[in-house]
User: Fold Pyridoxal phosphate-dependent decarboxylase family protein from Streptomyces cremeus.
Amino acid sequence: MSVPPPAAPAPLAGGPAGPAALRPLLDTVLTALTTGARDRSGPLPAGGPAHTAAQLHRAAHPLLPATGSGPHEALRALVHALAAGAADPAHPHCTAHLHCPPLAVAAAADLAASALNPSMDSWDQAPAASALEDALTRTLAAEIFPDAAHPDALITTGGTESNQLALLLAREKHAHHGPLQLVVGANAHHSLTRAAWLLGLPEPVVVPAPSGTLDPAALDQALTQLHRPTLVAATAGTTDTGQIDPLPDIADLCRHHRAGLHVDAAYGGPLLFSPTHRHLLTGLDRADTLTLDLHKLGWQPVAAGILAVPDTTALAPLAHQADYLNADDDTDAGLPDLLGRSLRTTRRPDALKIAVTLKALGRDGLADLVDRTLAAARHLADLIEKHPGLELHDRPTLTTVLFRPTRATDDDIAHLRRRLLQQGRAVLGRTRAAGRLWLKATLLNPHTTPDDLENLLDHVLSHYTPAHPERHTHR
Assistant:
């Protein structure tokens, strides 16, 4: 009696046979993405969290069967369910957060990164990928610090990791001179305060930002009163309003008071690619460390963060040795040492998608995307200003637009936002400014049209119902 040969193991994505194994699976994935988006039909699924979870559970169950369903059925079911239940940043009415629609070319590059699966913690796991990362980080660092002799940058998971690394580098620089004191504006990103806590630093000094940007006079007063090593964190693109701190004034104060300067340009940094708008970042190159996120106004799949420094020697505190990854004799023999390029050990080759995007689009293509997106935000502000039933908080600096129905209460705003989410009509954020709650549209889609923006406002007005109509008389 013959014994049937054992079934072949599931195919791999890499190796000579990998592309052939991937090709039919990709067709299944792309079909499922299409059918899922069609079933969703809007920027997010209607019905709210419970309905979405129930739909997903039906598609996923059983998630660990005794006998598998096979790759095509698993991909078809789960990719379709994920797409049908997605908040799709490519939809022009999905505007709540700094959550960008990724470029197709970047997503395609990310597939290659996943298939090859380099691990960026030793050269023998990522020979070409480590060389590409080195080229990319030095290119981006030179763009940020054009007059520096030896600028450098690290790839991170985003602004939170970059900000934490910036504080770590500043702490180590002043380790022999007492605890580092972080000084932030009231408009600063929450990750800075959290990083100070994680690193055991004193509670940050918070400087007022009455107009949405850090007040230089208040900063001067705070720095005058401090007598310890100090790091000032400025913001180029606040999360709530998209405003940019007065970077030249802050840099002058830091130099006068001998304080370090970190600039969180996670949001606004890509304006450097635009000749039309890069003047808004004047003074950025005076930072000691700088955060940049290309999964915001860089249209990259998450994650694509950068921490840049004007001199590569600033990264020396990150040096670390593990004999199985960067033995001294291997390093002396010329194998690149990658452990000092991150606090993480295993990490993806996120440099690939960024490098492909830069090469594919060039400066002109990137500038066009930035300019289109900022123009859309200005057009949305124009529409709001002209509409008697809407109120604009302020003209946008970047791509964030705050607005609200005229005379709405804060409760009205909160209920309206949730109603739009529940019905799957629009994904708008919320933020508090000037003592009131506002709807927040953060535009990151360069394909957004004027009609898309008019339809978005129509959704807002048609779903707006005052919670207490008696408070809205004489409108």
About this structure: Residues 351-386 form the longest helix (36 residues). The chain has 14 helices and eleven strands. Confidence is low (pLDDT under 50) at residues 470-475.
